[in-house]
Write a structure and sequence with these properties.
Number of strands of chain A: 10
Largest interface: A-B, 28 and 28 residues
Oligomer: homodimer
Mean pLDDT of chain A: 97
CATH superfamily of the largest domain in chain A: HUPs
Radius of gyration of chain A: 19 Å
CATH topology of the largest domain in chain A: Rossmann fold
Largest sheet of chain A: 6 strands, parallel
Strand order of the largest sheet of chain A: 1-4-3-2-6-7
Number of domains of chain A: 2
Chain lengths: 282, 282
């Protein structure tokens, strides 16, 4: 695995691989790698002859500077993890390499970026789209891999790619869960052992809703959400930021489940914010 | 010259040319071609083995719907003109091909887009950047050619390309002028013969400023602009929208000319708006 810090070096390595006729797969990450990331990397390696991984904690997607500051970073551990996989190129730029000389350009997907996560993290998806657009231009991959764990991010990026005619195929990979069901996330390292049950309340709520739909045939989302919310409400120091059932394509709220939907939620423990979602296909 | 209307066909043709090892040059236009466009096309042909021209009147860059509606369009004439040059591929998409299924993604360069033209045409450069970003993603050229006639556009696009790491070289070509000095523009077809002198007042003002700097050594921009504005003020039905002397790089107003500057202006005759500029290098 080659490790580079400069945009020009990424281009050089990718150009070489492309000259050899290799398909380029790309997995952009913010590091603090977990099994979710590894599943994306494995997917890329299985489908592409040349896999590029990037590690960059993107400051402009953090609406909360404190969150940016404390976001877990451990390049050494990440590099060792990646070396065990068959990754061809790792791009770890400094912030100055990505945003030099007062960058002023932003890519924004209206509408889809303003709901759900966007309501609680204003500007978040603008920051995500901008950095992902930049990384796509730097790596110029054939395929890029994103996890369904960040469902809205995946949908926003797909929309950006389509709207801007970016020549890349976006591959969505299933959410990877820890043994107890908690969705793999870099932020899970913050969860205290005693709070595990609280952290799991969101997933338990999603599972309950899924059961009600698939086993009991309940389609009325107001009933489903009421029940789902009650599971989280048991924990007084868990703040439910949102729990919604929305159309799989356009993220607009659904009254009655009649096609593929996403059930998404965000909870806040006093010291960590967690998101999760499930897809229900009736 | 091959003419295509679909994004996929552009990609197919460009891919073929690239496989043959050809450098791809690109000249995006809104049609109503004049000698300015032809100079860009000739520059591309002289530097690149494969030249792509696009004709697309981009609705989202017109802040004024009436201006969009009356913008000159003559594809037949344009195609005949292009056939005489050595253009390899002409892309003439329909609006639906460029903006399908409620496009919601916008590319914006803050700061540079908000001054000068941006003040008088809110949203204009956001529309320009979005369509140019799309066209770059569709054509994936090595070099793209823009005229200095639209100086702010050129500077904004260069900034976008740099900020978003778009892998294209932006080539700026000198303003082409008609015999009497009027900058070549698609909108010149609207100018009534009797109004020629009025239309020329902006260029005469720019030339006067240039003379004052280069021949008389006057560097104080307030003096220069006062003199320049007085030339336009002679014509009562010519509205001067702005006349400014700004830094060549960041477009911020300059008090005293000490390095490369742009002198830019916009005037409005009752039925047509015209822009022009000169570069002064002291």
């Amino acid at each position: 695995m080659k490790i580079v810090k400069k945009v020009d070096d990424v281009r050089k390595e990718v150009k070489k691989a492309r000259k050899e006729g290799k398909t380029i797969g790309f997995v952009p990450t913010m590091g603090a790698l977990h099994n979710g990331h590894l599943s994306l990397i494995k997917a890329s390696i299985s489908e592409c002859a040349f896999t590029v991984v990037s590690i960059f904690v993107n400051p402009i997607q953090f609406n909360d500077p404190a969150d940016y500051k404390k976001y877990p970073r451990d390049n050494e551990r990440d590099i060792n993890l990646l070396k065990k996989e068959d990754v061809d190129l790792l791009f770890i730029p400094e912030t100055e390499e990505m945003y030099k000389e007062r960058a002023e350009t932003y890519v924004e997907v209206r509408g889809l970026s303003d709901v759900l996560e966007g309501k609680f993290r204003p500007g978040h998806f603008k920051g995500v789209c901008t950095v992902v657009c930049k990384l796509f231009n730097i790596v110029q991959p054939d395929k890029a891999y994103f996890g369904w764990k960040d469902a809205q991010q995946l949908i926003v990026i797909r929309k950006m790619v389509k709207d801007l005619n970016i020549p890349v195929e976006i591959v969505g990979c299933p959410t990877i869960r820890e043994n107890d069901g908690l969705a793999a996330s870099s932020r899970n390292v913050f969860i205290k052992e005693d709070d595990r049950e609280k952290a799991l309340s969101l997933y338990n709520s999603l599972k309950k809703i899924e059961d009600m739909v698939l086993k009991e045939g309940i389609k009325d989302t107001s009933i489903l959400l009421e029940e789902g919310k009650s599971i989280i409400a048991k924990y007084t120091d868990v703040e439910l930021q949102y729990l919604e059932i929305v159309d799989f394509e356009n993220l607009s709220p659904v009254r009655k489940i009649e096609s593929k939907v996403l059930v998404l939620g965000a909870i806040k423990l006093p010291y960590v914010r967690l998101i999760d979602n499930i897809i229900i296909n009736v």
